[in-house]
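Dear support,

I submitted the protein below through the web form. The confirmation email said the job was done, but the results page showed an empty box. After a refresh the structure appeared. I'm attaching both so you can tell me whether what I see now is the final result or a partial one.
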Amino acid sequence: MSRKRWAALKRRLSKAPDILQPALTLVRESADAFPPLKSATGGAVHVLQLRKTRKDTCKDWETLANEARERATIMDQDNFRADQLQEEAAKYKAFLQEIQEAAQTSRRRLKGLKGFLHIETEKGTLDHYSKELQKKREDFRAIQAVSNVQNVQEGISVIHEEVGTIHEGLGTIQEGVMNIEEIMKKIQILSDKTNNDIQELSRKTSNEITGIYLTLSRPKDQIMNLYRWDLLFF
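What the results page shows now:
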């Protein structure tokens, strides 16, 4: 038989229990008049039920393990800055790893004929981990929310400090501007005084030059007379 035909046959056989169980249940319920048949069909129905329970349990374990694996991947991608949050995240990731390991152990225990003996135990373990995962997920979200609030508060505090620093800087700038204005006033006063001195000096120089010019413009005899008068006084 080729592999393709064998795979098709396996798919059909895998569906056989789902088809046989309703039929066997009907036979069992209608075989009250023949106890051996009822007992035989009852045993067969019980085996099929156990098989279905084992299959469902393995499937549920696989679903839980995949969920734990996905959450662990998300946790690895996050950057938890707060010390408390890092500690809780480490515990949460350790629990997710524990679920994945428990799922592998459960699948091994449920294999083969001996697996039927562990169905109830593994169902109880699965239920325990499912409830515990939900509880730890909610607890971690609560801690994460508190940490986020603390981070926001710290950010606001830093902003307040920065605003205070800016105010101090503005005060320093204002003082600097006032100092500059005072210096400019002094420079303006000095400039005005210098201009006045220059104007006064220019006026005096102009007067002296004018006097010299007028003196030089007089006739020679007048200059000599002035010279004689100067000699008399000296």
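Response: this is the final, complete result; the empty box was a page-load delay. Residues 9-166 form one domain.
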